[in-house]
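Query structure, 238 tokens:
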């Protein structure tokens, strides 16, 4: 646990933001690491010379940001965590739904990201990685033509998560989720193109991954994505 003496009194109007900044600084400098418990609200309020409600607001802000985990009870308190990817995916979803980024720019960036992931998956992917993706497709096919939009998008999220895992790069998994989850929210809203056998395209794609043929895999995936993105843009126009 970091010492309260490491913190300095707060003098600004938006005091909770500076509390957040100082706590983040302690983490970045290595004085606080995942699992460490911060001093109590009362102790920090005295150290920062702010109200306990200000410290509480800072704690909640850092909790939302995936930095802290708040525990209740006698032995509770604010604990530093390893990080939470949820704020990243939520920010991307908000930007897309609120118009911070256009659907066109979003889909273009997604295609660029996928190209690099495919290359890495071809280089590093294992039989277990590819088998997991094939299992995902088999389970989706087993549901049949009556599959709901929610089920189909859930299988889609799982499939792309499997592709990202095949890169064996943890950051890629987080980036993939940041792009795929908002896409799923969007498809749940506008519906999916039921005239298209998505599984067939993905089966060809995984076969190319197994062959370590990055060019063929990329061509199959980009063709798949172009059709999806064209459909999404047409639905948006309507």
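Result returned for the query:
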């Amino acid at each position: 646990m970091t010492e309260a003496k490491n913190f300095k009194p707060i003098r600004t109007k938006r005091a909770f933001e500076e509390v957040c900044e100082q706590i983040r600084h302690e983490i970045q400098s290595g004085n606080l690491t995942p699992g460490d418990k911060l001093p109590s609200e009362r102790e920090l309020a005295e150290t920062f010379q702010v109200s306990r409600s200000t410290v509480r607001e800072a704690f909640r802000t850092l909790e939302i940001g995936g930095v802290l985990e708040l525990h209740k009870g006698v032995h509770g308190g604010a604990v530093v965590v390893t990080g939470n990817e949820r704020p990243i995916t939520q920010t991307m979803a908000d930007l897309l739904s609120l118009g911070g980024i256009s659907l066109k720019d979003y889909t273009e960036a997604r295609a660029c990201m996928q190209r690099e992931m495919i290359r890495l998956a071809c280089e590093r992917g294992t039989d277990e990685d590819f088998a997991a993706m094939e299992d995902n497709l088999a389970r989706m096919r087993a549901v049949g033509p009556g599959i709901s939009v929610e089920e189909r998008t859930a299988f889609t999220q799982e499939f792309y998560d499997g592709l990202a895992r095949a890169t064996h790069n943890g950051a890629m998994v987080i980036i993939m989720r940041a792009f795929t989850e908002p896409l799923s929210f969007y498809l749940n809203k506008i519906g999916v193109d039921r005239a298209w056998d998505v599984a067939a395209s993905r089966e060809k794609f995984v076969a190319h991954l197994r062959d370590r043929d990055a060019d063929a895999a990329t061509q199959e995936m980009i063709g798949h994505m172009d059709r999806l993105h064209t459909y999404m843009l047409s639905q948006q126009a309507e």
